[in-house]
Write a structure and sequence with these properties.
Largest sheet of chain A: 6 strands, mixed
Number of helices of chain B: 17
Structural class of chain A: alpha/beta
Shape of chain B: elongated
Order of helices and strands of chain A: HEHEHEHHEEEHEEEEHHH
Number of helices of chain A: 9
Oligomer: heterodimer
Radius of gyration of chain B: 32 Å
Strand content of chain A: 15-25%
Helix content of chain A: 25-40%
Radius of gyration of chain A: 19 Å
Bound molecules: guanosine-5'-diphosphate
């Protein structure tokens, strides 16, 4: 069958679609923001944003919801990236959590995540009055996300309500919202984990060193390898951190993020490992194991 | 080179195909998609383990894998055992990556299927081999054709249950083909499959030796996805004006069809300005050429006025500009579509108000019959005439999906109520070739396609002004002329509700109406003003507000005794008995016009004839064009 030489490759199509989405959202919103969580998806999202508005600078700020429990390498990477790109990143730390000393060890992963991330995000969105927020979530991450819209409407209380969700046809996105409502926009909806890595490789996008294998102090706990990133980590009797060559497939709060044993140091090696990988990336997230349908619950509560 | 390197090189060449699967409940749609994911090794161990556990817990396959469970999303749905939305699945083979729109065949089928089909290039129509072509099969195929998908795979599933019988396969295929061709689907490939056991999905099945066509994956991997890239004309809806500094003014957007090269002559619509491509700017450097699907930024050689919503077109093959269309409308909201109500329409990057002026019929999607209707409910499809508040740039949907599609948005709640496909413009706005000037009366007139002016009816109460005025407006409207009727009803209750019937108030009444008419004429409308307007001086004042040739005074000449005898509202009687002071003709004078453009004697002329005379007068004055189009010939 004749196939034009100039037919776009799948990565070119994904890239163009994401750029189109970001331009639509920016053109039809008053106060957009990009939720920057430092991970690989955020790195790709930021790269696409730079492309979308080039040669202009980004027509929005970045927002990072810090929990004070992120890996040290993540914070260092964030600061370096912002300095290199000359970007403005708002860092929000939920003051209630600071006051109450919320942590994953005494309060459990659910409460910890809800208070730091979900509540923290709502505080920041309200304080700045953002009407459109770009996020890096993908449909392939989890079953319940397969039906998520690219433009996902949230009530004034930041709730996700199935009834508020709009049919999305062609590439015509309805960015209109009522007073108080906001829209989460997911330009990476149609990317898979493998697409993300291929794109990082192809475009040479900087990523946090945590994705690359290197010897790190870890303990094995609840069938997960947890890195002991600082001395706030309360070791249980009999637990001693051991150095293992590990890397991370997703990043979050270090006590809640499982590492995989690996020797993959380059993006190429990581992709090589992925091709023979036998577990999906979400397995490394303690939060998904809490209860069945937990992502969906999180979504309704306003986490992502 | 490492094997990963080689892999990545191969990866870089992969293209993408989006497709939709359609089938009735239990035809095996979920099983098929699950099978595609499974066969292309998209499942990780933990997902497989979850699938095995779920299969045992809630599956329908005994101890076997129930692939359908892979596809469930929301817990609420799973508990109710139904899926209520469109889900998107991803898998890849060595040649391509695929995005599957998975749309359940349940209650909301029309809404969901139309949504899923809107982004699909291929449709897989699934048939249970034991059941053959069903009503649902026809319904799905109609929607596929409506949404402009011309490549169809007829997957005749559960072949294992009919012993892989060639005879039955052939019968089903023949029956389907006949039907499909009747609705315009011609590019059909039929494949005998068993989703459950994998026959003819990735590998050719030894159980269908009589079948020599492609496997499903084979077909999906090789079907052309270039979408007429080399043959269609450039269209790029402008999304965002890119202005990093005063020296750079670029126009960002996605090319939806055709291609563009440096130096190409382009036309900006709707303004019609023509200019050349100076640069194709991207983050990855400047391009010499860009093609359909790419998101780019163009700069142009001339300082032309371009904004979001405009479309950059190939100069010698521009799109059309129009504001009235025949369109298919698919309604997706529980709040019914009401003709005449104003909604928002988003097409490309332009959003404008519009209303349905006529719902011609709705389509029974099961029988494809046309049914008379006054509204559209959720999941109903109608053929409508629509009227836009401003013209848009478009191509018919059948020529260009991106340029001919639109969504309908509720003005109050901002939700998406429906979607539609533009078939053709009801009045073809001429393609605009002139050098555009700033927007003035003349340019509005060109856009409207007819001139503007005032038809000013004057005459006694009950003389017949309103009857004739209404007929005139109906005729003009039918000819595609933008009109507005001003009469006591819509003026006295709003703008002039502070005025009574004293002489002073009558003057002020007419002054305000004159000023409003002037604004409307400036806006390009044919204003029909129907007021007693008893004083010659005020009528003159109104006339003086207009340009030469824009004021058509129509004297509806009915003698007082005749009008008084008609007295439909009993006003003369009240006036005679003194209950209604300052009534024209009784205790307030009426100054008959001496030189009206038209004088109508209602005793000898019917209202229809009168309306005809008025329209003819407007034509001879050059305010409107010949009746066939309502447009001025330029
Ligand atoms: N024997 C046989 N059964 C099938 C085949 N495909 C699907 N099924 C069964 O048909 C039933 C309905 O399938 P499912 O995929 O849930 O249908 P859906 O409603 O279209 O998604 C399930 O019990 C499947 O196992 C097939 O090719 N052969």
């Amino acid at each position: 069958m004749p196939q034009s030489e100039r037919t776009l490759t799948h990565l070119q199509r994904l890239e163009a679609e994401s750029i189109h989405i970001m331009r639509e959202a920016a053109a039809e919103s008053e106060n957009p923001v990009l939720l920057y969580s430092i991970g690989k998806d955020s790195s790709v999202l930021l790269h696409l944003a730079l492309k979308a508005f080039h040669p202009s600078t980004l027509p929005f700020k970045l927002l990072h919801i810090d929990t004070t429990w992120k890996f040290k390498e993540m914070i260092a990477f964030r600061n370096q990236r912002m300095a290199d790109l000359g970007l403005d990143c708002i860092v929000h730390i939920n003051p209630e959590c600071v006051a109450a000393g919320i942590n994953p060890f005494t309060h459990g992963s659910s409460l910890h995540t809800d208070m730091w991330k979900t509540q923290g995000l709502k505080q920041a969105l309200d304080a700045h009055g953002f009407d459109v927020a770009f996020g890096g979530a993908r449909r392939d991450e989890e079953k319940s996300r397969a039906k998520e819209r690219i433009f996902s409407v949230r009530s004034a209380q930041h709730q996700w309500d199935p009834k508020l969700q709009r049919p999305e046809l062609w590439s015509l996105y309805n960015v209109r919202r009522n007073k108080g409502e906001s829209i989460r926009v997911f330009p990476l909806s149609n990317w898979t984990e493998l697409d993300i890595w291929q794109y990082i490789h192809q475009q040479n996008i900087p990523i946090v060193s945590l994705y690359r294998a290197q010897p790190r102090p870890v303990v094995e706990r609840d069938a997960m390898l947890i890195m002991v990133d600082d001395d706030r980590f309360p070791l249980r009797p009999g637990e001693t951190p051991v150095m293992k060559s590990v890397r991370f497939r997703t990043l979050g709060c270090y006590p809640l993020t499982g590492a995989v044993e690996s020797t993959a140091e380059s993006v190429l090696d990581i992709i090589g490992e992925m091709l023979i990988a036998t577990t999906s990336e979400r397995q490394g997230r303690a939060i998904d194991h809490d209860s069945s349908g937990s992502m969906e619950k999180k979504k309704q509560e306003g986490y992502f | 080179m490492s094997s990963t390197d080689e892999y990545l090189v191969a990866q870089e060449r992969k293209t993408m195909l989006r497709f939709i699967t359609c089938g009735s409940v239990d035809d095996g749609k979920s099983t098929l998609i699950g099978r595609l994911l499974y066969d292309s090794h998209q499942l990780f161990d933990d997902q497989l383990a979850a699938l095995e556990a779920d299969s045992i817990k809630v599956g329908t396959q005994g101890s076997g894998l129930d692939f359908a469970l892979l596809l469930d999303g929301l817990t609420a749905e799973r508990e109710q055992g139904i899926t209520i939305d469109v889900a998107y699945r991803f898998f890849a083979t060595e040649k391509r990556t695929f995005i599957v729109a998975d749309t359940p065949g349940h209650e909301q089928y029309t809404r969901n299927m139309v949504t899923g089909a809107s982004t699909a290039g291929v449709a897989i129509i699934l048939i249970d081999a034991r059941k053959g072509v069903l009503t649902q099969t026809r319904r799905h195929s109609y929607l596929v054709a409506l949404l402009g998908i011309d490549k169809v795979v007829l997957a005749i599933n559960k072949m294992d249950l009919i012993n892989f019988s060639q005879g039955m396969f052939d019968r089903i295929e023949l029956e389907y083909r006949e039907f499909a061709e009747s609705i315009g689907l011609t590019n059909i490939v039929s494949i005998p499959v068993s989703a459950l056991f994998g026959d003819n999905i990735t590998a050719s099945s030894s159980r269908t030796p009589w079948y020599s066509g492609p496997t499903l994956i084979n077909y999906l991997e090789t079907i052309d996805v270039s979408d007429g890239l080399d043959t269609s004309a450039l269209r790029m809806p402008v999304q965002w004006v890119n202005r990093p500094n005063p020296d750079f003014r670029g126009f960002s957007g996605t090319i939806v069809s055709g291609s563009v090269k440096l130096g190409d002559c382009v036309r900006i619509l709707p303004s019609g300005m023509q200019t050349y491509v100076k640069q194709i700017v991207t983050f990855d450097g400047e391009f010499v050429e860009a093609v359909s699907g790419q998101a780019i930024t163009l700069t142009l050689t001339d300082e032309v006025d371009v904004s979001r919503g405009d479309v950059i077109c190939q100069a010698d093959s521009p799109a059309e500009v129009a504001d009235q269309f025949e369109a298919h409308l698919v309604w997706m909201s529980t709040q019914p579509m009401l003709p005449g109500r104003t909604y928002l329409l988003k097409s490309g990057t332009r959003t404008v108000g519009f209303s349905v002026s006529q719902l011609k019929y709705k389509v029974n999607v099961n029988t494809l019959e046309h049914v008379a209707a006054t509204t559209l409910d959720i999941n109903e499809i109608g053929m409508c005439n629509i009227n836009l508040e401003r013209p848009i740039v478009f191509d018919p949907y059948t020529d260009n999906r991106d340029m001919g599609s639109f969504i309908v948005i509720d003005k109050a709640t901002n939700t998406t109520l429906g979607a539609g496909m533009l078939r053709f413009a009801l009045r073809r706005s001429h393609n605009i070739h002139r050098q555009a000037v700033s927007v003035d009366k003349l340019s509005r007139k060109e856009l409207a396609g007819h001139g503007a002016g005032v038809v000013w009816f004057t005459g006694l109460s009950a003389s017949g002004k309103s009857t004739i005025a209404n007929l005139v407006e109906r005729r003009l409207h039918a000819q595609g002329v933008h009109t507005y009727l001003l009469d006591g009803d819509n003026v006295r209750h709003g703008l002039n509700k502070d005025l009574g019937f004293t002489a002073a108030d009558r003057v002020e009444n007419i002054r305000r109406i004159g000023e409003v008419s002037k604004l409307m004429v400036d806006a390009g409308l044919v204003v029909i003003a129907s007021f007693i307007s008893p004083f010659a001086e005020e009528r003159q004042m109104a006339r003086d507000l207009m340009d030469e040739g824009e004021f058509c005074e129509v004297f509806v000449d009915t003698p007082l005794p005749v009008a008084e005898a008609r007295d439909p509202k009993g006003l003369y009687q009240k006036a005679r008995s003194g209950d209604l002071p300052n009534f024209t003709g009784i205790d307030s004078p009426y100054e008959a016009p001496l030189n009206p453009e038209l004088r109508i004697e209602t005793e000898t002329t019917t209202a229809e004839q009168a309306a005809e005379l008025v329209v003819a007068k407007l034509l001879s004055m050059g305010i409107i064009g010949p009746e066939t189009s309502g447009r001025l010939r330029s």
